[in-house]
Amino acid sequence: MSDLQKQIQGAAISAMKAGEKERLKTIRLMTSAMKQIEIDERIELDDARIIAILDKMVKQRRESISQFKTAGRDDLIKQEVYEIDIIQEFLPQALSEDEIDAIVNQAIEQTSASSIKDMGKVMGLVRPQIIGRADMGEVSGRIKSLLSTN
After folding, report:
1. What pTM, to 2 d.p., does this model score?
2. In terms of CATH architecture, what is 3-88?
């Protein structure tokens, strides 16, 4: 069992003991998503894969929030924001704008990317460094704008 899985299990036990039902519900959603992949793919998850799963869960909730805003469902937005906050507790610390720029620029230099056609190469280097630590959509947009100005 990975360190991150142990940390999440410990948080579930703490939430149970403290009677934090909403927190426990969110943590159980996380463990359920991880267990589903372990069963489906017959693998044991490592920290990198768990971070990817949690990052995907955050992304799904952000998409839900934008849909709930359109529908005017503030009650559901509040729940999604709460779940994002709990999931993010287990993700690595978010990168600053400068750190993201440095990673992107370094990847562009390493791949000698000169046009939008090289986007895949750059994303291949950037993705493992930022997954779970930055919004992939925003980073992708940044890379696109940098490559299209070259």
Report:
1. 0.80
2. Orthogonal Bundle (1.10)
